[in-house]
Structures are given as C-alpha cells and as structure tokens.
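Try this one yourself first.
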C-alpha cells in the first residue's frame, strides 16, 4: 500500500481537534487513508442505504452506537448528522472522536462552516503525488529554491504519467486509464453534478467541461466560455465554481505585488489531474502527447498540480500565484513564503534553453520582495544551479 503524505498531519490534528474532516475528489483515497490512520475507529459508510436511512430517521440513536472514535465516510450523504455531532463534541470534546470524509467540498464545507466552526480541522486529499507514487520521502515545498540531492529517474516516462494521471485505482489495480477515466467522468457528471446543482442539459455541461480542458493554463475568460458553449455568463460562472469545488479544476490567482500598476487580474485555469485532462482532450495513448498542440499546457498542469499537492498534503493552504503584466512579462508560478516571492517557470522541453530564463530574469530583477533566486522546472533530467536559477527535472519539482 502506498503511504500518503497526509497521514502524519491527520494523526497530529486528531490529537488536537474532536472532529477531523477530509475532503477531496472522488476516488482520491480518503476512505483508505482514514481507515489506515485510524485503525481502532469504528467505520460507517453513509453510501450504505441502510446506514443512511438509520442516520436520517434517528440521528441520535445512530451516533449513540459509537462509544469511541468513528469514521463517518461520505458525510455529505447525511449532512444533518453534523448538527448532532456539534452537540456531542460540545459536551465531550475528546480529540479525534469523529473522522469525517466527503467527496464534494461544496456540500460538506457549507454545512461544516455553519455547525462545526472551531471544532474541526479540515484537510484536502488529492490523488497521488509523484513523491508518493515513487515511494520517496515527501519534499518540503518551502525549500524548493534550494539545491537538493538528485533522485533516481522514475521507471515510467513523462508521457506515460501525463496520460495516466494520479488517481489511486489506476495505479493500485493496473487499470487502463482510458476505461477508468471514462467511467469516472461519466459518474462525476451524471451523479455528482446533479447532486450539487440543477443542471438540466448534461450534454451542454459535458461540452463546457471539455471547453475548459482546452483552456487549461490560460486566463479565465467567462464571456468566451459562455459564448462557445451557448450558455449565459452567470451559468458559466456557476459551472466553473462547481468544477472548482469538486476538485476537478483549480483557479490560480494572480499576485498583486506593486511591481506594476498594470497587472493581469483574472485567474488562470488548471485541471488538477493530467490524466483526466488528457482524457478530456481525447488523447488516446501516451505516444500522442509529444506532438500534441497542448503538450506544454498538459505538462504545466502536471507541475502545478504537484506544487498544489505538496502543500495540501501537508495540511497547508498552497501559497501559489502567477504573475503577468500587460506588457507581456510573466512568470508561471509565484510562491509566497511570507518573506519573499519565489518565481517558478515551467517548460516542457527536455533541453534547457537560455530563453527559458527570460521571465525569471525579469522578475528577479524587480527586487524585494521578489526572490533573487528563480526556479526552472523542465521536461528533462537536468538538476543544477545556473547563475541565480535552480534547474529541476519534472520528477523532482518540489
């Protein structure tokens, strides 16, 4: 079984909070992780119709069954339980008593914020990271601008992992990525989306999701999305919010440091799994990626998601942004450490070219709080420092 980076943080939080809530996309491993970390807890899945009926008909009796700790899986299926859990932990705040998991952040967090504020810790679990998949100790993302020891090259190619993505079942069971991602996507659209929002025309929503896939790594333009999909601007905004709260996409915000009075203010759109993105782009095999028009955007998606997971799986909010001014200067990612802003450039090319550093040179020359050292993550194997720039291979991007 692959060890998850979040395990240690979960144990620490359960020693402090009476409730720990684990959210994330479907099939990211929340159930497996919670049962692995909290082996002595009872376990109940609220996907079970009998358990869900009991919870809805007699919530007090349902919860009275558990004398010690309990894992309540898929809590969003019976959100009414949260109010009763609040009463229990207010009278007995034993740490780690309730472990809650939920697949849809929107449904879960809306209720949690109303009833369990101050009583629960909330963490996000995404699919495997590269570190987890390779079985290496997790990197400290706060130190990514420091030269580290070279790692062994992965047993798989960059194109293969871009195509497969990181959902655990694909790797645990050796499943065909196309078949599994197709089923996953249909389940998400046909079930989860209907639960979260009233969408009458699922075919139109599916077209919207694929249009978003074609815009990964680009600035969000809701007017263009709405026009191309044949929907209204408010509908496009609502549907994009659904994708975001379901952990399908991530909106990378711009950084507003006073380096320029005229900076781009729209977020950039990224998918959080390169495999799902490749499926939506109708890429049928890994060998199609090198010549694909969106190879650079797919690679950028992989790196951005790895940076995001590096923080999220430590129980931290990712301090990630991008920077672009209206004169054309840009940096793919800016990491805000609180003391400095570390610029990160992402290039899919295997051979490092001098032009790869142009954005980093401009940004680092702006002076504090911009870091004097920039990071370049590329599609090759090189790991070295070149002047004020640290060059990292794709499999060692944090």
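Now uncover the answer:
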């Amino acid at each position: 079984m692959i060890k998850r980076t979040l395990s240690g943080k979960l144990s620490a939080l359960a020693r402090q909070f009476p409730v720990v809530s684990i959210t994330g996309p479907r099939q990211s491993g929340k159930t497996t992780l919670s049962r692995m970390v909290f082996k002595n807890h009872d376990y109940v899945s609220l996907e079970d119709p009998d358990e869900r009926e009991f919870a809805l008909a007699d919530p007090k009796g349902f919860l009275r069954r558990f004398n010690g700790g309990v894992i309540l899986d898929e809590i969003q299926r019976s959100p009414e339980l949260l109010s009763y859990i609040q009463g229990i932990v207010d009278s007995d705040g034993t740490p780690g008593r309730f472990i809650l998991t939920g697949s849809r952040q929107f449904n879960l967090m809306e209720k949690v914020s109303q009833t369990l504020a101050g009583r629960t810790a909330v963490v996000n679990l995404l699919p495997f990271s590269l570190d987890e998949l390779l079985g290496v100790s997790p990197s400290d993302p706060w130190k990514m601008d420091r030269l580290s020891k070279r790692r062994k090259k992965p047993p798989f190619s960059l194109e293969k992992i871009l195509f497969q993505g990181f959902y655990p079942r694909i790797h645990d069971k050796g499943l065909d990525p196309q078949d599994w991602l197709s089923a996953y996507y249909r389940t998400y659209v046909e079930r989860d989306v209907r639960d979260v929002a009233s969408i009458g025309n699922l075919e139109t929503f599916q077209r919207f999701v694929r249009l978003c896939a074609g815009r990964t790594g680009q600035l969000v333009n809701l007017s263009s999305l709405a026009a191309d999909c044949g929907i209204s601007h408010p509908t496009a905004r609502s549907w994009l919010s659904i994708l975001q709260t379901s952990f399908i996409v991530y909106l990378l915000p711009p950084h507003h440091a006073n380096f320029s009075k005229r900076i781009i203010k729209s977020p950039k759109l990224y998918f959080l799994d390169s495999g799902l993105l490749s499926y939506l782009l109708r890429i049928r095999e890994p060998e199609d990626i090198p010549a694909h028009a969106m190879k650079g955007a797919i690679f950028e998606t992989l790196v951005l998601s790895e940076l995001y997971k590096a923080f999220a799986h430590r129980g931290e909010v990712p301090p990630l942004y991008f920077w672009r001014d209206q004169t054309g200067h840009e940096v793919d990612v800016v990491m805000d450490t609180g003391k400095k802003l570390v610029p990160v450039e992402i290039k899919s090319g295997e051979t490092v070219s001098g032009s790869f550093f142009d954005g980093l040179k401009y940004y680092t020359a702006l002076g504090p709080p911009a870091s004097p050292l920039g990071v370049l993550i590329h599609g090759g194997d090189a790991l070295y420092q070149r002047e004020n720039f640290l060059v990292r291979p794709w499999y060692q991007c944090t």
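Discussion: The two ends are 23 Å apart (CA to CA). The chain has two domains: 6-124, 130-396.
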